[in-house]
Design a protein that fits this description.
The chain is 74% helix and 5% strand. It is mostly helical and 175 residues long. Strands 1-2 form a two-stranded antiparallel sheet. A hairpin with a 2-residue loop joins β1 and β2. α1 packs antiparallel against α2, α1 runs parallel beside α3 and α2 packs across α3. It is elongated and about 85 Å long. The mean pLDDT is 81.
């Protein structure tokens, strides 16, 4: 097809594409504009044709692209903002991921509260600051063996408390 034939075909099909977009918007309750959908579809068609895409039936491809864009707009609209506990989250997996992260942080604070100041200090240096046992010993002036024991005891205490929390046997009021 020549460029003139393509332009003519798409000009003739524009009304049909608008009708498809309007029907989809009405059926789905979408807030998208039919004109915008058709314009986007025509743009994508031109990009396909310019890239050398072989078209057997331009009219069928135009309809398919228009329907695909309608669905894309509908899916984008479904991601709405919902208020949960006074916070706004976008719908879908992001909200659950945020809530899971908040639970992890809350649990870490509960576990952290059960440790001594020395245990907290050594764990921060080891985990958060990525210091070696030798570096911690140099920074604190304490022997490496006592640092290892303190870190080990802190981890053991946290693991035991975490096991109790996950089993639901620990009264959360203690934290």
């Amino acid at each position: 097809m020549t460029k003139t034939e393509i332009e003519h075909t798409l000009t003739v099909q524009r009304g049909k594409l608008l009708a498809i977009a309007r029907r989809f918007i009405k059926a789905s309750g979408s807030t998208a504009e039919a004109e915008d959908i058709v314009q986007e579809a025509l743009t994508e068609l031109w990009l396909l044709l310019d890239s050398g895409y072989q078209v057997r039936n331009l009219e069928a491809l135009a309809v398919k692209v228009t329907k695909t864009i309608c669905v894309r707009h509908h899916r984008q609209q479904k991601i709405l903002t919902t208020a949960l506990d006074g916070n706004d989250f976008t719908g879908g997996t992001e909200a659950s991921a945020h809530l899971e992260m908040q639970e992890v942080l809350d649990t870490r604070q509960k576990l952290w509260a059960q440790l001594s100041d020395t245990q907290k200090q050594y764990l921060e240096m080891r985990n958060d600051q990525a210091m070696t046992i030798d570096q911690i010993a140099t920074a604190t002036g304490h022997p490496k063996s006592s640092i290892k024991v303190t870190i080990s005891q802190a981890r053991k205490t946290m693991k035991e408390l975490l096991d109790k929390i996950s089993k639901g046997t620990e009264n959360t009021e203690k934290y």
